[in-house]
Design a protein that fits this description.
Blueprint (H helix, E strand, L loop, with lengths): L10 H15 L8 H16 L6 H10 L6 H6 L3 H8 L2
Helix pairs in contact: 1-2, 1-3, 2-3
């Protein structure tokens, strides 16, 4: 990754974009905080959707398209509360 004028990489942009993408994916339906979403999905965003960074809409579309390849922790961030709650009810 290229360095910016401050001598740091754009990792902050990557992490923010990954967190925003997950938040935007379900309109904030997840109870997870942005930090939790970022921690859960940053690796997946870098691995599977690096071409889309920093475009939030493109990252979201990419991650939704590749949801079956997301880590379980990240995939859980894309589940709506109703969907995840329905799976646990008997």
């Amino acid at each position: 990754m290229d360095m910016n004028r401050n001598g740091t990489t754009g990792w902050g942009v990557v992490l923010l974009a990954a967190g925003l993408a997950v938040s935007a994916a379900w309109g904030g339906a997840s109870a997870a905080t942005r930090n939790e979403q970022t921690a859960a999905c940053k690796g997946d965003a870098l691995k599977l959707c690096a071409f889309a960074i920093p475009n939030e809409a493109r990252i979201t579309a990419c991650m939704k398209k590749k949801i079956d390849r997301l880590s379980p922790r990240c995939r859980a961030m894309f589940e709506t509360p109703a969907k995840s709650g329905a799976a646990t009810k008997k």
